[in-house]
Amino acid sequence: MTAYRVTPGLPKMFTPLAAAAALAFLVPTAAAAKAGDAWIAGDAWVGRDVVPPDVIDSTVNQDRIFTDLGTQASINYDTGPVILRGLGGVQVFPAESDYNRYRLGAEAQIDIPLAARGRTRLRLIPGYDYVFANDGRVFDRVRLDGQLIHRHNPEHVSTLRLRYGYRNQTERRFTGYDQSEWMGELRHVWRPGNARTRIQASLLGLHNNAEEDRFTYNGYGTQIIARTPLAQKLMGYGRLYLVHRDYKDDFSRVFPYPRKDTQFRLTGGLEYALDRRFSLYGEGGYTSNDSNVPTRDYRGFVGRMGVRWNIGLTN
């Protein structure tokens, strides 16, 4: 099997989109993986980010953006027909240990050619995550990600994506958060002149059906990601994420009406390659969640700086 080495997107606990996603990890490396290849990819950082969405705090004027430290890594092996990945991650908030999250997971990537020379292919990615905190399990999730990918020419690639997941949340802190998670995406990638510049635009549709209707929502939005070389070893990148969510039922007794959120995130950064395996990066920007529920309304600076790696384990 010939495929690009693509580091999986960040898990949902680290980003507003299921994974999603650190920008450099969304872009394939120059090298192509082949059967028998193995490699380790990941990053470590210090920064400021939004606390996990399952954190419940009844304080009206709360701050949901804190300093965080983290690392995540994947170990990958290309068997030929399937790429296997083991995943792990840690995100720590020094100011509040209840927000800490630790992740273990596994997934497989299967590419099925549907047209000559691989111009159209079906990609299937089944996976499992187990996320825990200092006091035990937070949730576990099974997922199946299906992507129909068509390469029009070397510059343009379109993807139709449908992802389903089931999140089994612990009831230790609150109940009703178990949910089926659906995401649809129409994505187009443009590489002008078939060069290293890459522009990706997506339309998103979301539907989460939770055990309690106050956590059930429909959503829609867009995401734009761009990346371009600025010098021989320096890359610049940016990301815009905008999603609106309408919830089904009253949020709480204190706020007896359905919640409505508009989530916005705009970030930009630089990445400097130290060699073929390691790079340094720094990024920053602004995020907000414009909500009619005061305990879910926030805005402020987010950013991080750290080191990324992609290390081959075979020749």
What would you say this structure looks like, in words?
This protein has strands spanning about 5, 30-35, 40-50, 65-80, 80-90, 100-115, 120-135, 135-155, 155-170, 180-190, 200-210, 215-230, 235-250, 260-275, 280-290, 300-310. With about 325 residues, the chain is mainly beta. It has a 14-stranded antiparallel barrel with strand order 3-4-5-6-7-8-9-10-11-12-13-14-15-16. Strand 13 and strand 14 form a beta hairpin. The chain is globular, with a radius of gyration of 19 Å.
Summarize this, please?
Helix content is 0%, strand content 64%. The chain is mostly beta strands and 315 residues long.
Q: How big is the Rg?
A: 19 Å
Task: List SSEs in N-to-C order.
Answer: EEEEEEEEEEEEEEEE
Helix content: under 10%
Largest sheet: 14 strands, antiparallel, barrel
Strand order of the largest sheet: 3-4-5-6-7-8-9-10-11-12-13-14-15-16
Please write the CATH class name.
Answer: Mainly Beta
Instruction: Spell out the CATH superfamily.
Output: monomeric porin ompg
Distance between the termini: 17 Å
Task: Count all strands and give the number.
Answer: 16
> How many helix segments?
0
Q: How many domains in all? A: 1
